[in-house]
Amino acid sequence: MAGTFSQIYIQYVFAVKGRQNLLQKPWRDEVFKYIAGIIKGKGQKSIIVNGVADHVHVFVGLKPAKSISDLIRDIKNNSSKFINEQNWVQGKFSWQEGYGAFSYAHSQIENVYQYILNQEEHHRKKSFKEEYLDFLQKFEIEHDEKYLFDWID
Predict the structure, then answer these.
(1) Which range is the signal sequence, renumbered to this chain (predicted)?
(2) Cβ distance 102 to 116 under 8 Å?
(3) Taking the model in full, what pTM does it have?
(4) How far is C-alpha 46 from the geometric centre of its chain's CA atoms?
(5) CB neighbours of residue 144 within 10 Å
């Protein structure tokens, strides 16, 4: 075969350090647009970026030349720098260590898109912790809950 052709669909989920409610509505969409720009700038396909005050969901079409970990590192580093430059939060903004990365088939794109689009509605019924544990269970990912995130309850 003369070329390599693929599209890998990944949903990233990551939280604000300490799971603090720092992503405020007046500027949250600007952060999501900035993250989409980072993804595009890295030669990847941003499908949707959305979230709530304490965490973000990023759905991308990933080319195999880019590693999952390299893209999330770039997203988190560059977006936290952007937020800090805007002085939107008191003190220094940062993301928590770690992230979730979940893969999907092409046939699931619309469902994942709608799920991410409706995060505000979704989180009226379910906490981030419940949502994240559901992802880990659904994808059969072994984990020890004490190592997931710095939970502040």
Answers:
(1) none
(2) no
(3) 0.91
(4) 11
(5) 6
